[in-house]
Amino acid sequence: MPEDGFDTQARFKDTHRHSADVFCSGVKLQSVGSQRTKGKKNLMIATVHDHLQLALRAGYKPLLSADNDYLVLRRLAHEAEWPTKSEVKKIEAGFAASGSSYGGKMDFAAINRHCDGRMMEKISWYNVLRKLNFPFDQYGD
Question: Residues 13, 102, 10, CA angle at the centre, nearest 5°?
Answer without folding.
Answer: 10
